[in-house]
């Protein structure tokens, strides 16, 4: 595979900067912290780092409310430091992916401030979706679209009486993608970061940008897609070309022009595309559009052999016609951490099912997460590791008074929100000084330095798996062939004589014929037996 195709099989580590590592001891992660931990990431064996938004932001939605793309938030550092992160990571063999949020900006963005100041009918307001209200005095919102954040309002009234649209929080006004200036500015932002050596861009809410200019009422149609049904087996029916704001056909011309810009720099895209329909999903991955998109079907899939196999098959089938590699994701900064999810009665992920106090068996969840890591890293395509996944961190229960995520507040307090997967990483048993989210008291056991060198730790498993995956070559690319296996067991071969077996049944099963064991997620149960919730990599 040519080096320029690195993204087809890369292992990509997601850095949520605010919680990754704190360089100045103020309780908020920062770029100094990232720089200090780059050797850790290189030793982990990942090929690229995806940084969630690090730009100037009031942090109304954890940085997904960007006030200026060309400035690093002072809480994180400076542009010069970001350039150093990119260069130093590159020197250690890791590429950088930045996060662009084109659907909306912060209400503190100069464009939105100018629009508010300029008043109704002004050219400044054309960059957004401003409308008069309904009702006798315009006192009712102009439309019925429910928010992507727990169905709350999507319209906010300004002091002069007009309303503006925001699919997420009121602090995130939606941009008008029919306006040429919006398109021009985003291409400049892409160039700004590509010029600084960035190798890729993650596109936030990639299927939401374009709206039907009439902003027609949904009138009962499904809202989706985020949070909502993922593509893949069992997904609910959803959007489509005619939906007023999801997956509109006009989006593709935007991504074609973005692709032309990326091609000038040899850079790549990964889209955040939550869509129920495989065929519609694959359109984003046509050769002149995005290189990859997150596999939310896999991330949402329960710990069940048949469902997982169906998901893998469907994923490979939907990517094949467009020649795009699949991506494999178990969790990210928006969803319940894997160890917790797999330790519950409901092992799939669904935003709608989030609640406080769900009983969780962490030992079981950890055992399954270890097996899932080997399954995921054996599949053809690129894989994502969310910070802390390699430490086996569970979802934290955040005390009520400390929750910051707007999803919690917009649910009326029923949804715990996403802070539980965003807690600062335990590097040592000593907690961070005044962390922006509290670290649970028992997290010392997960500390990276305690896991160092321990043969049974999650960190050691991830390091070994990533090292083997890179060295074997056969894991990331090429085809996958299923082997006949007992019920509840997944077994498939990969190029170079690699064989992955995952036992999701409740009983030990004999290992298939092999020359030697490369790596197991748990010790063998007696000679030649693979225990329940265990995976193994074999060479044949
Ligand atoms: C998806 C991001 O991953 C999430 O964190 C954010 O809240 C929404 N998009 C809105 O930008």
Shape verdict: globular
The mean pLDDT is 94
The CATH class of the largest domain turns out to be Alpha Beta
Kindly state the number of beta strands: 20
What does the largest sheet look like?
A: 8 strands, parallel
Proportion of helical residues = 25-40%
**What would you call the structural class?**
alpha/beta
The small-molecule ligands in this entry are:
1-deoxynojirimycin
CATH fold type of the largest domain: TIM Barrel
CATH architecture of the largest domain, by name, is Alpha-Beta Barrel
Q: CATH superfamily name of the largest domain?
A: Glycosidases
In the residues, how many domains can be counted? 3
Provide structural commentary.
The chain has 3 domains: 3-103 and 197-208 and 268-281 and 292-311 and 325-464, TIM Barrel (Alpha-Beta Barrel), CATH 3.20.20.80; 110-165, Oligo-1,6-glucosidase, domain 2 (Alpha-Beta Complex), CATH 3.90.400; 479-539, Golgi alpha-mannosidase II (Immunoglobulin-like, Sandwich), CATH 2.60.40.1180. By secondary structure, it is of the alpha/beta class. The protein is built from 14 helices and 20 strands. It is globular, with a radius of gyration of 23 Å. The strands form 5 sheets. An 8-stranded parallel beta sheet has the order 11-10-9-5-2-1-13-12. It has a 5-stranded antiparallel beta sheet with strand order 14-15-16-20-18. Strands 6-8-7 form a 3-stranded antiparallel beta sheet, with no helix packed on it. Residues 226-239 have low confidence and may be disordered. The structure holds 1-deoxynojirimycin.
């Amino acid at each position: 595979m040519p080096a320029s195709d690195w993204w087809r099989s890369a292992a990509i580590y997601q850095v949520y900067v605010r919680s990754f590592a704190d360089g100045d001891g103020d309780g908020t992660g920062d770029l100094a912290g990232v720089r200090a931990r780059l050797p850790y990431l290189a030793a982990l064996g990942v090929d690229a780092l995806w940084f969630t938004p690090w730009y100037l932001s009031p942090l109304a939605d954890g940085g997904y409310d960007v006030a200026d793309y060309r400035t690093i938030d002072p809480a994180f550092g400076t542009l010069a430091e970001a350039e150093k992160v990119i260069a130093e990571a590159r020197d250690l063999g890791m590429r950088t992916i930045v996060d662009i949020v084109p659907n909306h900006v912060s209400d503190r963005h100069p464009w939105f401030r100018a629009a508010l100041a300029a008043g109704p009918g002004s050219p400044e307001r054309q960059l957004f979706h401003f409308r008069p209200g309904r009702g006798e005095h315009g006192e009712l919102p102009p439309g019925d679209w429910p928010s992507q954040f727990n169905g709350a309002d999507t319209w906010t009234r300004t002091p002069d009486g007009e309303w503006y649209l925001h699919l997420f929080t009121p602090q995130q006004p939606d941009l008008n993608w029919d306006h040429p200036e919006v398109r021009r500015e985003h291409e400049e932002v892409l160039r700004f970061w590509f010029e600084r050596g960035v190798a890729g861009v993650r596109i936030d809410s990639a299927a939401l940008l374009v709206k039907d200019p009439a902003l027609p009422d949904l009138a009962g149609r499904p809202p989706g897609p985020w949070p909502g049904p993922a593509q893949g087996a069992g997904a609910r029916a959803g959007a489509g070309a005619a939906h007023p704001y999801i997956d509109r056909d006009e989006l593709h011309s935007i991504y074609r022009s973005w692709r032309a810009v990326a091609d000038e720099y040899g850079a790549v895209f990964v889209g955040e595309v939550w869509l129920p329909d495989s065929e519609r999903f694959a359109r984003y991955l046509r050769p002149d559009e995005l290189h990859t998109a997150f596999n939310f079907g896999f991330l949402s899939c329960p710990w069940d052999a048949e469902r997982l196999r169906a998901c893998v098959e469907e994923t490979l089938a939907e990517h094949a016609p467009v020649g795009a590699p699949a991506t494999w994701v178990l969790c990210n900064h928006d969803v319940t951490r894997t160890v917790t999810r797999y330790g519950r009665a409901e092992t799939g992920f669904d935003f709608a099912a989030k609640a406080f106090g769900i009983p969780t068996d962490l030992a079981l969840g950890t055992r399954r997460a270890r097996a899932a890591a080997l399954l995921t890293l054996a599949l053809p395509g690129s894989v994502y590791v969310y910070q802390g996944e390699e430490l086996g961190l569970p979802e934290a229960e955040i005390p009520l008074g400390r929750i910051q995520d707007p999803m919690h507040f917009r649910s009326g307090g029923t949804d715990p929100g996403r802070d539980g997967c965003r807690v600062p990483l335990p590097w040592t048993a000593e907690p961070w000084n005044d962390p922006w989210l509290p670290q649970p008291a028992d997290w010392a056991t997960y500390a990276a330095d305690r896991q160092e060198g321990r043969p049974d730790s999650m960190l050691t498993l991830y390091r070994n798996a990533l090292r083997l995956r890179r060295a074997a070559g056969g894991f990331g690319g090429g085809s996958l062939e299923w082997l006949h296996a007992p019920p509840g067991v997944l077994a498939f071969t990969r190029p170079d004589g690699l064989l992955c077996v995952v036992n999701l049944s409740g009983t030990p099963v004999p290992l298939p014929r092999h020359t030697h064991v490369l790596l197991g997620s748990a010790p063998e149960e007696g000679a030649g037996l693979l225990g329940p919730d265990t995976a193994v990599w074999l060479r044949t």
